[in-house]
Amino acid sequence: MTYLAASGVSLDDIGILDAGIVALLGYAVVFFGLILLMLVVMALGKVFMARQSRPVQKKAPAPAAAPAAAPVAAPAEAPVVAAPGSAGPVKLYDTPPKTAAMIMAIVADQMGKPLNELRFISIKEVKD
User: What is the pTM (predicted TM-score) of this model?
Assistant: First the structure.
């Protein structure tokens, strides 16, 4: 026989109204816990997003002392660095980028290889 701790009433002897109230209180406790968990997850997400978007300040190394008579050269173009996981640039001839992306995805799928393991040099639309 199960008893309610606060009132000393047996749970076998309660009516339908009392059972409904006990069930509603149980649902309320569960939903209150879920809402608290949701608020904690949202707060942690905002904290981590703020931490991630904040720029990391690095100390710049002190410039080396250059001789005063040295001529200043024009800055050379920096080499283009490919994105991590890519195999380099692709030249597109008469092909929109969206279409080129679909072609590369289809080729990778048909070959059964990951896209980052394939090297596309150029994509050209063949017109009849």
Answer: 0.35
